């Protein structure tokens, strides 16, 4: 496990690395989880796929999630998450990485690529939030419909855990309720400029993965017109990496 400071209180963002690479100079792939998730749980199993062999793979937990710290004076906005992720990559001496973000993590990855383009050579977004005011089915699960007080201390967190089902709840219950609410509220606010605009304007190679079971991707034509490669993943829903890990691994490796 490795760590880096991301705020003025010495709070740490933490990550683990796969051991397949021969040195830290090997091509890096960085995995960024979604709201209420953890990177190793959602992505570590794809490290065994031969398409990703020989790479340096970092599984980063964003602030308030997994093994990273959860300061109560942090705003957990998309830009703040992106800056914390940049601090981790700086400490790991990563440049020009493949950054693969899922759901909310896709939005964070887009903001990272906008703010620190030298860190990202290729951007793979899996069912990421591209617009403000995401629907509950897009990964927010209605968390932002509660006030912060209602969610953190008024029973909202427990109700959401019951609603999301056992798979998501397994990692969400390890996240900090305050961080969850502020992060979900940050998704509703979006970024400035909005994530879709950043994604369309970015100059690095970009791929968007949409699960077949999730239905058509809104705004697909605009993404493709901007040079984004949009892939519909067969037999997959929102959690593409679980539903079709082979296609996911090939897409991350640039072979899909």
Automatic annotation (TrEMBL):
Annotated InterPro entries: AB_hydrolase_1, AB_hydrolase_fold, Carboxylesterase_BioH
Coiled coil start-end: none
Record's keyword terms, sorted: Hydrolase
Domain of life: Bacteria
Segments forming domain AB hydrolase-1: 30-133
Molecular function GO labels: hydrolase activity
Protein name as annotated: Alpha/beta hydrolase
């Amino acid at each position: 496990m490795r760590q880096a400071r991301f705020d003025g209180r010495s709070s740490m963002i933490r990550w683990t690395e796969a051991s397949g690479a021969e040195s830290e100079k090997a091509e890096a792939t960085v995995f960024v989880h979604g709201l209420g998730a953890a990177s190793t749980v959602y992505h570590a199993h794809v490290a065994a796929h031969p398409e990703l062999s020989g790479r340096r793979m970092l599984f980063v937990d964003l602030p308030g999630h997994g093994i990273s710290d959860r300061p109560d004076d942090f705003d957990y906005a998309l830009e703040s998450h992106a800056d914390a992720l940049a601090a981790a990559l700086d400490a790991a001496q990563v440049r020009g990485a493949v950054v693969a973000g899922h759901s909310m993590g896709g939005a964070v990855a887009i903001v990272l690529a906008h703010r620190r383009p030298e860190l990202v050579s290729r951007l793979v977004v899996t069912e990421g939030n591209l617009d403000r005011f995401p629907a509950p089915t897009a990964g927010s699960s209605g968390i932002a419909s509660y006030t912060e007080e209602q969610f953190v201390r008024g029973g909202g967190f427990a109700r959401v855990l019951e609603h999301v089902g056992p798979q998501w709840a397994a990692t969400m219950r390890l996240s900090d309720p305050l961080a969850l609410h502020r992060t979900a509220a940050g998704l509703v606010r979006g970024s400035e400029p909005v994530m879709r605009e950043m994604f369309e304007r970015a100059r690095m190679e970009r791929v968007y993965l949409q699960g077949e079971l999730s239905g058509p991707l809104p705004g697909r034509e605009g993404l493709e017109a901007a040079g984004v490669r949009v892939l519909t993943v067969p037999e997959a829903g929102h959690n593409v990496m679980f539903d079709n890990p082979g296609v996911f691994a090939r897409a991350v490796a640039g072979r899909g």
